[in-house]
């Protein structure tokens, strides 16, 4: 098919805009940490696509797995199982603690959370679900109801029983109590608020172990243990959504291993499919049996599809063979050191924080007030793209403007150095051009 007409037409003429602005380049090719636009310009990808390409783009083993699936089956009747699906369920059960042994394979993170919420409601007989301020769990209605970072306005009521806890953000304490070190007061205040609002039907807390879109928030020591105690006291289940944190980004297979707390329900997505749409909802044998007995229903067109399962098996193989967990920690240190160097040099960087290869950089107008510098942040992000670095800037309500930096786990040290140099140049240039004033 000829694509020559693409240069003459506005690219988004026939597309619905869905939130973030479209990047003003067409991307034609992706390999490892690099992508190329249709004119052949090379761009470093510090977002791993949409946080899914943890092995790097188009890893040869993923390409091979896709070919293998083409020899077998790509898609089947929803009630049919295939060897890759069975093998993946066994592999995950082998990686996870014995209690988390039953998987349901879906396509997106939103869908996996939707299934998790339904299982939690069916199992407990309750319907109230508590999310976190700043959280992101997907765009389907149930998942969106417990998203508190953005996108709630204009669609009418969310799911009845959707409540929120304040995220333990030490840089912007949600209860205006701590500064720079969270002492857990927000959790106690939060559960008091939950109890005050509950109609006595609390089913679950859903959380990202390290909140990503909400500002790369690493909770303080012992935090998840306290949450689990609060849940147990109220007969609530704890759901961990590890869309971004599972499979290496934080240096372990699962982030909950760092925090020493096992969830009752685990959801996986993004990183499991390595760029292909695959997600999983994982529960205990007892919960699966109870929900089955109660008529749990969640067939979708692509439930248990063989193609993404074949790819996920390759993802798990590569993670182990290329020791990407250890690599993420080593490269994460290098990245964090580079970012801290930039923080020393540029006043606009108020904070650098993160874990492994998930790093957050706060852009502030003033380091004392910590007011977000949204406009300059956007101008620098655009300049980075012109210079060949793709960065994701996220706004956390009116509170923060941040870069969430997460290159593939296969990123090389020279690529990190190059990314930091581009960022340095972009910040310097935009500020020299009076970036704030110009951007506003
Ligand atoms: C933590 C988390 N959960 C769930 C989702 C939703 O996943 P999907 O977009 O695949 O539905 C996302 C997407 O960004 C996410 O970051």
Structure report:
The protein is of the alpha/beta class and 440 residues long. Helix content is 38%, strand content 17%. It is built from 15 helices and 15 strands. It has helices spanning 48-51, 60-71, 83-95, 109-124, 141-145, 185-197, 223-234, 256-259, 270-273, 285-293, 306-321, 324-345, 374-387, 413-432, 435-439; strands at 27-31, 34-37, 42-45, 102-106, 128-132, 162-165, 202-207, 237-241, 265-268, 279-283, 349-355, 358-363, 389-390, 392-396, 400-405. The strands form 3 sheets. It has a 7-stranded mixed beta sheet, with helices on both faces. Helix 2 (60-71) runs antiparallel to helix 11 (306-321). The longest helix is centred in the last third of the chain and has 22 residues, at 324-345. Bound molecules: pyridoxal-5'-phosphate. Pyridoxal-5'-phosphate binds next to helix 4.
